[in-house]
Amino acid sequence: MSTPPHSFPDFSDLARSLILLKNKLDQRTKDFEKDVQEIRQYYSPRAKFERWKATEDGKMWKEKQHKRQRGCCASCSFVIQVKGSHIDHVQPLSKFPELATCVKNLRLLCPDCNTRKGSNDCKRTA
Question: Span of the secretion signal (predicted)?
Answer without folding.
Answer: none
